[in-house]
Amino acid sequence: MNLSPKAIRFLIQAINVQQERFTEQLQSANVSEDDAADISNDAMYLNEIKKSLQEHHDGLIQAARPANT
């Protein structure tokens, strides 16, 4: 997949929103132990995706900078 830095930033922002939702769900008194485990696992997986996207974004930005000569 070939994404622009702007597209990657949008994805990272969307991930941040979902991470906030996961945190809210985990803080809810109505969440079962099984659901909490699922949410925690999903949150960890989503965080790894975010890290990967951020690294790719940083690489694109670095590659776009002119080399110092």
If you had to describe this structure to a student in words, what would you say it looks like?
The protein is mainly alpha-helical. 80% of the residues lie in helices and 0% in strands. The chain has helices at 5-27, 33-64. The protein is elongated. The two termini are 32 Å apart.
What's the overall average pLDDT, rounded? Answer: 93
As a whole number of angstroms, the C-alpha radius of gyration is 16 Å
Q: Major β-sheet, in short? A: none
How much beta, percentage-wise? under 5%
**What percentage of residues falls in helices of 4 or more residues?**
over 70%
The total beta strand count reads 0
Question: Count of helical segments?
Answer: 2
What is the general shape? elongated
Q: Low-confidence parts lasting 5 or more residues at pLDDT below 50?
A: none
Determine the N-to-C terminus distance: 32 Å
The assigned structural class equals mainly alpha
Question: Looking at the chains present, what oligomeric state does this protein adopt?
Answer: single chain
Order of helices and strands: HH
